[in-house]
Each structure stands twice: as structure tokens, then as C-alpha cells.
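Is this the right way to post C-alpha cells for a design question? Let me know if I should format differently. Anyway, here goes:
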């Protein structure tokens, strides 16, 4: 199958992948990116077999930061991640793939993953530390999943952490330096992740749907 590597194709496929949540809601997430064609066989409109470079950055929402402060939980970067003084958490993109089909030909019509291996976010409080790492964006489910560790012990190798709401996504911006920028996807806490954090830290304040922040995704286009 042809690997579409022109800058336009790359930018379009990445835009569709990271903004795919605009086509659904958290209730659609059971479909998964491994869904089968609804009828017959379909050829992809755009496909990227190997993503590389740049990052997903999340400007942490002020109310989320205040909630952490009230619970006496301290966030910190893990591995190759970083958190700026302005409260922007950045996670390098380390790989992945994206395939986009004509809407209606298969379900879901955007499939793949965007990997962020070797980085993540930790929350520390009450003598406990939870690490959320190795994030994977799944455009088919509009979810970000990851590994969860509590005090160094793995609690979940891969579990839904955040819902990505692409309805707030701004138009794609292509840069002269060979990158494309997508900004505006809202990142919300998944109910299962909220339950795990509440149970670990002995609190009840974290709820599913809590706005974590707004994402800015920068990718190499090959230009």
C-alpha cells in the first residue's frame, strides 16, 4: 500500500488523526481503531506508516491546577517530558502511524496511533506517587491511553486516561520549517482515570470530564 509522504498528505492525515474526536464523543470510544470495514473493502485516502518527531504539548487548565493544589498534589514531568513555568506540559512524539479512509466506508474511518514513549506526568501527594507514562493517542477512539504506576509498581500497562475533544480544534497551520501545528483540542480526564487517582490518593474531588488543558500538537511533515 502506498505510503503518502508529501507534506500536504502528512499534514492532512495528522490533522484528521488528532482532531478525529470532532467526529464523535466519549460514548463512541467503544468502537476502537481496529474496527472492520462496514461493507466491502476500502482503500485509504491518506496513510502514514511511520510518524516521527516533535511533540504534543498541553497547556494545563487553571482550574485543573487549582484542583491539584487543593488536594496537595504536585505534578512533575517524567522522562523526556517537560513542564514550563507557564504551565505547559510537553511530551515528545516518538512514532506511530495514521490511516484515513473516506467517511462511511469503514468504522472508524481514522485509524492508527501516535506514540509518546519514554515520557509522561507524575502526581505526588500524601506519601504516594502516581506516574502516567508512554502516552498513545488513538484517533479511532478519541482517547489517550497510557501506563499507570503507583509508587513504582505497575497498576495498569495500558488504560484510558484522557478523552480528546476535537470540536475545539483550530485550523491546521503549516510552517516554513517543515512542521505542521494543530492547536485547540480539549483534553478531559476519563472517568476510569479519575477513579484510580481518587482511590490512590484517598480523595473524591477528581471527576470524569474534568478539563486538563488544551493540546498543541507539532509534527514533522517531511517538507
Amino acid at each position: 500500500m502506498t505510503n503518502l509522504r508529501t507534506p500536504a498528505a502528512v499534514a492532512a492525515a495528522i490533522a484528521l488523526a488528532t482532531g478525529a474526536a470532532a467526529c464523535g464523543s466519549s460514548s463512541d470510544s467503544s468502537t476502537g481503531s481496529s474496527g472492520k470495514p462496514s461493507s466491502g473493502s476500502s482503500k485509504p485516502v491518506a496513510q502514514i506508516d511511520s510518524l516521527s518527531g516533535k511533540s504534543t504539548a498541553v497547556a494545563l487548565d487553571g482550574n485543573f491546577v487549582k484542583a491539584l493544589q487543593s488536594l496537595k498534589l504536585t505534578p512533575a514531568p517524567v522522562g523526556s517530558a517537560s513542564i514550563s513555568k507557564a504551565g505547559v506540559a510537553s511530551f515528545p512524539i516518538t512514532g506511530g502511524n495514521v490511516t484515513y479512509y473516506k467517511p462511511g466506508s469503514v468504522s472508524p474511518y481514522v485509524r492508527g496511533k501516535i506514540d509518546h514513549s519514554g515520557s509522561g506526568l507524575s502526581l505526588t501527594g500524601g506519601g504516594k506517587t502516581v506516574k502516567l507514562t508512554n502516552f498513545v493517542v488513538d484517533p479511532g477512539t478519541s482517547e489517550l491511553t497510557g501506563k499507570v504506576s503507583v509508587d513504582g509498581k505497575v497498576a495498569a500497562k495500558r488504560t484510558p486516561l484522557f478523552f480528546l475533544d476535537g470540536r475545539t480544534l483550530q485550523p491546521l497551520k503549516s510552517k516554513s520549517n517543515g512542521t505542521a501545528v494543530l492547536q485547540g483540542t480539549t483534553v478531559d480526564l476519563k472517568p476510569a482515570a479519575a477513579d484510580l487517582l481518587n482511590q490512590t490518593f484517598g480523595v473524591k474531588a477528581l471527576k470524569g470530564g474534568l478539563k486538563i488543558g488544551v493540546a498543541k500538537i507539532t509534527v514533522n511533515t517531511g517538507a
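Format looks fine. Someone answered above. Worth noting: The longest strand covers residues 110-125. Residues 7-220 form one domain.
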